[in-house]
Design a protein that fits this description.
Layout: H1 2-20, E1 26-34, H2 41-51, E2 61-67, E3 69-73, E4 78-82, E5 97-101, E6 105-112
Parallel strand pairs: 1-2
Antiparallel strand pairs: 1-6, 3-4, 3-5
Length: 113
């Protein structure tokens, strides 16, 4: 389960930021997780709760912002929605769609005190 290693990385980022700012604890972490990122948001949320125990982020609120998938169709020259990494263009049926959105896995916001 790679969600556990992602959670460890997120907690590491949050703790580093809190220490840099001489904060006592992390209150809130907002993450952006793309639908095409191969991350299960519920599993990640569970792992964040487990990994945060005994850290500056223990008891923090974890929010996950869902980023929909999107691609650029090279044939029709427009952005199209994507549910999976291998979706064809819903307009022309072309398989030449390059992912432009939905693979995000980033910390968007931290609240510390």
């Amino acid at each position: 389960m790679h969600e556990m290693s992602l959670a460890e990385g997120v907690i590491g980022i949050a703790e580093d930021a809190a220490r840099r700012e001489n904060a006592r604890r992390v209150r809130k972490v907002v993450l952006e997780i793309g639908r095409l990122s191969a991350v299960e948001p519920q599993a990640l949320a569970f792992c964040l709760e487990v990994v945060s125990r005994g850290t500056l982020a223990e008891g923090a609120t974890f929010s996950i912002v869902d980023i929909p998938g999107g691609g650029w169709c090279m044939r029709c020259s427009r952005e199209v929605p994507m549910g999976t990494s291998y979706d064809d263009c819903p307009h022309c049926g072309s398989g030449q769609v390059q992912i432009v959105r939905g693979t995000e896995r980033r910390v968007r916001e931290l609240e510390i005190e």
